[in-house]
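In practice, a research group might receive sequence data for several interacting partners and want a quick structural hypothesis before committing to experiments. The following worked case mirrors that situation: the sequences arrive first, and a predicted assembly follows.
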Amino acid sequence: MLAYALATGIIFGLYFALVGVGMNLVFGVMRIVNLAHGDFIMLGALGAFWLFRGLGLPPSAVVAISFAVFFLLGLPLYYLLVPRLFRAAEPEMLSLILFFGLSQVIEAAVAMLFGNAERSIPSRLLGGGPVPLLGQTVPFAWAYAAGISLLMLAGVYLYLYQSRIGRQTRAIMAQREEALAIGVDIHRICAIAFGVGAGLAAVAGVFAPFMLGSFTPSIGIPLDLTSFAVIVIGSLGNPLGTLLGGMIFGVSLMLMRTYLSSFADLLPNLVLIGVLLVRPTGLLGRAVRHA
Amino acid sequence: MRSGFLRDMALVVAPLLVLFAVLPSVYDNGLLLLNFVVFLVLAQGLNLSYGFSGYLPFGYVGFFGAGAYGFAMLVTLAAVPPVLAVAGGGAAALLVGLLLAPLLRLQGAYFGLASLAASEALLHLIANPNLQDVTGGPYGVKLTIPYAPRLTYGLALGILTFTMALVAWLRHSRFGLQLKAARDNPIAASMAGIDIVRGRLAVWLASALVAGLIGAVFAWQASTFFPEAVFDIGFSIFAIVFTLFGGAGTLAGPVLGVLLLYGLYNAIGVSAPQYFQLTYGLLIMALVLFFPDGLAAIPRAWARRGRLADG
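A structural hypothesis for the assembly, expressed as tokens:
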């Protein structure tokens, strides 16, 4: 039972890392908290719902289409919102409010257009049967989602560490002013990072109906809290720390569900507060605090 | 300092109190009026923390819920007289505020979301089925004390007066000025000999206290409630949006925010929640993008523009 709980914890940990990584990338590069991230995930789930059930596309096509569409939607959204935000005195605090507003708009619009119903996707649409694991089985959808999550995280690594744009992105993360001074086109690089963040959220959304069972227009804020817990444990602003955060979160969630299920809801909150108090910059963070 | 404080009290606090004292005799929806006062207190209480120390607690509702549960448990388990139990609710919130004081080491978004996590943790603790004998667990609280709408409304107005007097005092006192200095530039302020930690802790606890007091009054008025109802993150969100909409750090701003937006909410939010949510979201976005300092800053911005045009 322990080994099975650990194994499913790792599967869910990989998925939670994917849920959080987009928000973390946006925070790391722009120092803004995208509270509409959870709603991007919800929209991704809605899109997948139509692509799977309406058009009957194979899962790999659904993932690719979702990423591309949300990447392209993220670019204009960045130019619409973020440059204006940076003219204010406290962009970080105001971003919480601005993106909360966006999240409300998305949630209301989806509820008005498509209704408040709870939706799910039958997991047979992903194909494959139950996958044996340590004498028990896990649904094929879980294994598939964990695989895609790992692939997407590897993609984020290649983007950040093996490409020219990624080098410029990391320059902005380290020192925005100096990146500007050496001629980095800040808005272009930030817009790309914002688009990638939206694309990653959409891919997480594709698997949300399978991993969470179902989805409604109002899952955005709870997903934001999960993402935030995951990325703070790893370390805010360090996209690869998200993988560690997701693992810790997933494994402890599964252990709690197995052994102490009535307290399982408490866990993400307690882990978040605990990590913040012991290491305010997250487990992989560098000390950057002032005063 | 004294003249500015008295001017604020005379021009903003007194008219508002007269308005809310007279309203019950011409308008008979007492519950709605009490809710307006509750949100006025929460907005001004949040203003104490955000407006003067820059800490924006997304989990502000945690204090409200702690006050409601502190009140309910004192009344049901210890048979404390309700008026005293309201003070006990304030004390419960104060205690939670002290427990969470280490969070003040965090900054910006970290603090905001950590406080939200703290409030959620408190909710899950109280709503836990294992604690059903103490808190009522997921089934909530059912109070058997007499319903006293005039008394609860009077208490709520008293708490509102206290909260707004605190804000007015901070706006015009040396202590308030020190806080603002610490908010705008903590390093320079501490070099100038200001005890930043003490100041922040003081407004944090004051902000917790008023939310707990009004939470207790709310619990008395409601008499039956579920844990989710008094720990609803909607309270935090409303308080934050009302305060920022009007203008944090001002006295009249949060009042304007509550009267306009909570009015709008009651006009259309109840019958058509989705249209309200949409309008609300768009309003918040427009506010942040075009008037990041709130409504109260618009006349000032115009005045500055006028001066520039003349000069």
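Before designing any experiment, note the following. Chain B has a mean pLDDT of 87. The two ends of chain B are 31 Å apart (CA to CA).
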